[in-house]
């Protein structure tokens, strides 16, 4: 048996009964969703009932971040994110976020966990691509945005009562100072380029021209 109950503006409670417990009480699975109207809510109810009856549904209170990411990727990311953006998200999820938080329940990840994690990212050894020891400040800021995006979606889906990143400031991005050739260095570079193939000569001299 399944039912839908209106809770507020665009908010509905989905209820699916799965039988009786050992003492005769009804076992219910519930989920609060946002919908434009009763028709959309009933469609979501049908999807929810299928999840429950197939054993795929996991109570939000027990869902790990890794399980949530699987849902997030299938139900949101593949439809809403550009392919390159999703590729970058997946890279940081695989290398940094899931190894740290994947095993934790969503509701157990607290602000201090995230603050400590961001601090660890600024220390030697955080980089995982073999290109050095330190992550750039821009990469750390990007990882922060990935985590926040995940929890934004969890809040939209009403899986959490409070956003764990509320009050956590975005890491500062340190802009690297650009260095340029002076006139003598530029002349030496051009002379050296005439010893190189024409393709590289054109490529590099074009890069030396100021915009």
Automatic annotation (TrEMBL):
It comes from Paenibacillus allorhizoplanae. Gene3D superfamilies: 1.10.150.130. This is Core-binding (CB) domain-containing protein. SUPFAM superfamilies: DNA breaking-rejoining enzymes. InterPro entries: CB, DNA_brk_join_enz, Integrase_recombinase_N, Integrase_SAM-like_N. Pfam families: Phage_int_SAM_3. It comes from the Bacteria. The keyword Isomerase does not apply. Keywords: DNA-binding. Residues 63-155 form the Core-binding (CB) domain.
């Amino acid at each position: 048996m399944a039912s839908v109950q209106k809770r507020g503006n665009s908010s509905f409670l989905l209820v699916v009964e799965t039988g009786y417990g050992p003492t005769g009480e009804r076992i219910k699975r519930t989920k609060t969703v946002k919908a434009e109207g009763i028709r959309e809510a009933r469609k979501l109810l049908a999807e929810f009932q299928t999840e429950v009856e197939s054993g795929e549904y996991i109570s939000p209170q027990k869902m790990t971040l890794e399980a949530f990411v699987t849902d997030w990727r299938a139900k949101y990311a593949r439809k809403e994110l550009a392919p390159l953006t999703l590729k970058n998200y997946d890279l940081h999820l695989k290398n940094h976020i899931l190894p740290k938080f994947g095993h934790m329940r969503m509701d157990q990840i607290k602000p201090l966990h995230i603050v400590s994690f961001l601090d660890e990212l600024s220390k030697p050894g955080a980089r995982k691509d073999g290109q050095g020891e330190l992550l750039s400040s821009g990469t750390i800021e990007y990882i922060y945005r990935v985590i926040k995006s995940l929890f934004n979606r969890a809040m939209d889906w009403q899986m959490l009562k409070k956003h764990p990143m509320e009050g956590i400031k975005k890491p500062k991005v340190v802009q690297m100072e650009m260095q340029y050739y002076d006139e003598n260095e530029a002349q030496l570079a051009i002379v050296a380029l005439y010893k190189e193939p024409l393709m590289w000569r054109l490529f590099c001299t074009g890069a030396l021209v100021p915009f």
